[in-house]
Amino acid sequence: MDVSMPRVDGILATREITDTLERTRVVVLSGHQDLETVCRARAAGAAAYLSKGCPVDEVLSVVREVADWPSDRLELLEWLPAAAAVAH
Predict the structure, then answer these.
(1) Are 50 and 28 in contact (CB under 8 A)?
(2) Interatomic CA distance for residues 81 and 40, integer angstroms
(3) What pTM value is reported for the model?
(4) Taking the CB of the first residue and of the last residue of the chain, which one, N or C, has fewer CB atoms within 10 A?
(5) What pLDDT, on a 0 to 100 scale, did the predictor assign at position 22?
(6) Helix (H) or strand (E) holding 48
């Protein structure tokens, strides 16, 4: 998923996908590297966030890793952004 696409906001699409298809995992591959965008994507349910400039082997590795995650790890990822917000 890209963050900026011509007709679709990638962060909103990520939220809709992860809310609707609970077992579906989204990996964001984007040119936006600012912390706010990364945090927004993760809060929307992105399982991982990669730079468009990263090597292909890194993309493949992350996709394989995310695909192998058990459901309980997904629940942990949903909890982490809320915990970080409380800590600040």
Answers:
(1) yes
(2) 9
(3) 0.71
(4) C
(5) 79
(6) strand 46-51
CB 76 within 8 A of CB 41: no
Tens place of pLDDT for every residue, the chain, 88 residues?
Answer: 899 888 989 999 999 999 998 788 999 999 988 899 999 999 999 999 999 989 999 999 999 888 877 665 556 666 666 656 655 5
For the chain, list the domains and their CATH numbers.
10-87 (3.40.50.2300)
**Residue 41 and residue 47 in contact, taking contact as beta carbons nearer than 8 Å:** no
Judge whether 18 and 24 are in contact, CB under 8 Å.
Answer: yes
Phi, psi of 9 (to 5 degrees): -80, 115
